[in-house]
């Protein structure tokens, strides 16, 4: 587990930095607008969202190393060619690169589900969420500093190299994607999608989408609040406090003896986000976002844990790909929606809309999953059923 999480962290720092690297390149190197950079970023994000389930399905069918080989080469070609591509071609190339993005996060989650027992899986997913928070705290900041001090083109190459090296590292580790008791699933017929992609799984995906919509909106609302107060330079401090609180929350949640349902954590996250809009300067905003930070990593880890339990071993790759697509879609939608709210009202309205998005997703997930929970546990023999391993 330690080598996997270490290699995954390096690769995730690069993957979470790719949007910022492309933005800085278009704005600084090509001397174009942020809108032009946004078009490239949107193309990359759209490709990632569409490619996640497809790559996950290929992992289930063809194996990990086959998929990594098919994604590492396109990533190397794209990131090496970015500095020589004309802008008119760049969005299309970025979309193709998104389709073939190295599936670091889905593969890591799938390997965690295979390498851990039920009693330790929640703690492992909590560590994975903490690693994700660290990557978001470190990656974009390093890209911004290096792009300003060195060269945007060099930064693009560096990000691409890190993505490729991360993929190569995971391929060399070749972690198991099915547990020992699930080995038979590798040769058994692949389960039909309708057997596992039902109301409970859709509920978790909706709540994952709502979580990242909320988190993306919080970041924009923080910037808007401090800009109105004339303290925009303190935005990095507030976001850093948010990230550190998430790390603490993830570690604390992983040590708890009992899990919590996704809808409850997401609902609490939405509730504590709304009053953060009452803060008017950076010290109080640091205090106001502590609650949201403490609940961020636990919510994301429970989403990942629940997806791994609901998906049968033969379809876990596709399920993790769908989860990554839902999270990416939430990140892409959150900032524009909250931006509209801020423009129409005030920065406090941004926090309110972000919190309401989380509450709505939590309510929808609760309503979708509750009537079917007993059926799902019985069908897939989730923890808490009477079904034995021999019966499975």
TrEMBL record:
Top-rank lineage group of the source organism: Bacteria
InterPro entries: MFS, MFS_trans_sf
Keywords assigned by UniProt, alphabetized: Membrane, Transmembrane, Transmembrane helix
UniProt cross-references to Pfam families, sorted A to Z: MFS_1
Residues annotated as transmembrane: 32-51, 87-104, 156-175, 196-226, 232-253, 260-276, 282-304, 325-342, 348-369
Tagged with keyword Nucleus: no
PANTHER family cross-referenced by the UniProt entry: MAJOR FACILITATOR SUPERFAMILY (MFS) PROFILE DOMAIN-CONTAINING PROTEIN, PTHR23542
Protein name: MFS transporter
Organism of origin: Streptomyces lycii
């Amino acid at each position: 587990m330690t080598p996997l999480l270490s290699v995954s962290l390096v690769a995730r720092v690069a993957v979470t930095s790719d949007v910022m690297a492309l933005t800085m390149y278009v704005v600084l190197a090509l001397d174009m607008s942020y809108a032009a950079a946004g078009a490239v970023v949107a193309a990359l994000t759209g490709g990632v969202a569409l490619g996640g389930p497809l790559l996950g399905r290929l992992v289930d069918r063809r194996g990990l190393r086959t998929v990594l080989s098919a994604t590492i080469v396109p990533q190397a070609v794209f990131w090496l060619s970015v500095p020589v591509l004309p802008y008119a071609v760049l969005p299309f190339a970025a979309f193709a690169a998104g389709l073939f993005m190295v599936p670091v996060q889905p593969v890591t989650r799938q390997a965690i589900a295979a390498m851990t027992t039920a009693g330790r899986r929640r703690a492992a997913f909590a560590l994975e969420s903490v690693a994700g928070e660290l990557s978001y705290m470190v990656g974009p900041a390093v890209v911004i500093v290096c792009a300003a001090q060195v060269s945007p083109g060099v930064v693009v190459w560096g990000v691409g190299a890190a993505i490729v090296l991360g993929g190569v590292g995971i391929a060399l580790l070749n972690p198991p994607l099915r547990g020992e008791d699930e080995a038979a699933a590798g040769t058994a017929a692949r389960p039909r999608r309708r057997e596992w992609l039902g109301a409970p799984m859709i509920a978790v995906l909706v709540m994952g989408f709502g979580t990242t919509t909320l988190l993306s909106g919080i970041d924009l609302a923080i910037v808007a609040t401090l800009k109105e107060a004339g303290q925009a330079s303190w935005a990095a401090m507030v976001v850093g406090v948010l990230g550190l609180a998430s790390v603490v929350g993830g570690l604390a949640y992983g040590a708890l003896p009992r899990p919590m349902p996704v809808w409850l954590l997401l609902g609490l996250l939405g509730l504590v986000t709304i009053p953060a809009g009452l803060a008017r300067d950076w010290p109080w905003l640091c205090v106001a976002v502590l609650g949201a930070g403490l609940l961020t990593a636990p919510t994301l880890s429970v989403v990942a844990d629940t997806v791994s339990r609901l998906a049968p071993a033969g379809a876990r790759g596709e399920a993790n790909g769908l989860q990554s697509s839902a999270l990416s879609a939430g990140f892409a939608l959150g900032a524009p929606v909250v931006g509209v709210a801020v423009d129409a009202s005030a920065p406090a309205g941004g926090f309110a809309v972000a919190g309401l998005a989380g509450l709505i997703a939590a309510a929808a997930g609760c309503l979708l999953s509750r009537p079917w929970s007993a059926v799902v546990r019985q069908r897939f023999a989730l923890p808490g059923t009477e079904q034995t391993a021999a019966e499975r």
